[in-house]
Amino acid sequence: MTKNKFHHVVILLTLFVNCFVLNVAFSQPFVPAADDEVVEVLPVYQIFRGTKKVIKQEAPNPKSVTESLEVAFQYIEIARKYNEPRYYGLAESVISPWWGDESDLDVQLIKAIILQFNHQFIEAKQVLDKVLVKKPSYQQAILSRSSINLVLGKYNEVESDCKKIDVIQQSLISLACFAQISIVQNDKYKMKTLSKKIDSILFLQNNYNDEEKQWVLHILSDLKYFDNDKKSSREALKNALEIDEYSLDSRLKFADYFLYQGEFQMAFDLLSDFQNHVSALIRLVYASSHFSSKIHNQLLVKLNLQVDELKRRDIKMHLREFAFISLYIDKDYELGLKYASENWLLQKEIVDVALYWYAIEKNNSQYHRAKLNDWKSKENFNVDLQVAMYYESP
Amino acid sequence: MKVLSLLFAISFLLLSGNGYAHKSSDSYLKINFENNKWNIVWDIAIRDLQNVINIDENADGKVTWGEVKFSRPFIESYAISKLNIVSGEDYCVLLPSDLKLNRHADGAYVVLYLIGNCSKNVSEVDVKYDLFFEVDKQHRGLLNFKTKNVDSSIVFSPTEPMTKVSLVKENWMQTFQQYFVEGVWHIWIGYDHILFLLSLLIPMVLVKQYPVMVGAEDFKSSFWVVLKVVTAFTIAHSITLSLSSLNLFSINIVIAESIIALSVALAALNNIRPIFPCDRWIIGFFFGLIHGFGFASVLAELQLSNVSLGLSLLGFNAGVEIGQILIVAVFLPIAFLVRNTWVYQRLVVQLGSFLIVLVGTFWFVERTF
Question: Which domain holds residue A234?
Answer without folding.
Answer: 171-245
